[in-house]
Q: What sequence folds into this?
């Protein structure tokens, strides 16, 4: 199973993703593809994301049962701890750090 979520990306990238995956909600694509096709799709996302952001999640043989990649500016960033990938939140840009 593969899931890709995109935000603020050009329509041409959304159309490209719709060629291989089913868009079940605006910007949310799902499908079952091989590793090779998954990597090819992610290359398309990397070249077409422009100022937007994207996350790709797929089932794999890890402790959590999945892995993911992110691309673009987002408050959520992947952090690996003890071999498990978690998500950390950056502070909101309006917050003042002391």
A:
């Amino acid at each position: 199973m593969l899931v890709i979520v995109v935000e603020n990306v050009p329509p041409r990238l959304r159309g490209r993703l719709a060629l291989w995956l089913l868009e079940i909600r605006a910007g949310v694509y799902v499908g079952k593809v091989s590793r090779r096709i998954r990597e090819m799709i992610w290359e398309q996302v990397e070249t077409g994301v422009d100022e937007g952001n994207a996350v790709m999640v797929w089932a794999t043989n890890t402790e959590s049962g999945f892995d993911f990649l992110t691309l673009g500016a987002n408050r959520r960033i992947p952090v690996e701890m003890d071999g498990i990938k978690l998500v950390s939140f950056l502070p909101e840009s309006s917050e003042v750090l002391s």
Notes: Strands lie at 2-7, 22-25, 28-31, 53-59, 66-71, 76-81, 84-89.
